[in-house]
Description:
Strand order of the largest sheet: 1-2
Number of strands: 2
Low-confidence stretches: none
Structural class: alpha+beta
Order of helices and strands: EHEH
Distance between the termini: 40 Å
Largest sheet: 2 strands, parallel
Number of helices: 2
Shape: flat
Strand content: 5-15%
Amino acid sequence: MSLGNHHGLLLFDKGDELIDYRETVRLLPDIQTLIFEGGSHRFDHIDESLDAIQQYANRLSLVLGFGES
């Protein structure tokens, strides 16, 4: 079952012992994802994700018209 056409940025650690990243990706195939080896449920790769988060936020602000003009 797909949940439809959504937009977002998902960040996963494969080592998360509570959330199975594969099931989430299966349910939300249209959402951009970054998946890291290892890690945990606390998401240990935030530092490595900051550039991707900033790029996503910049694209989102352009699409929605936020930010400086």
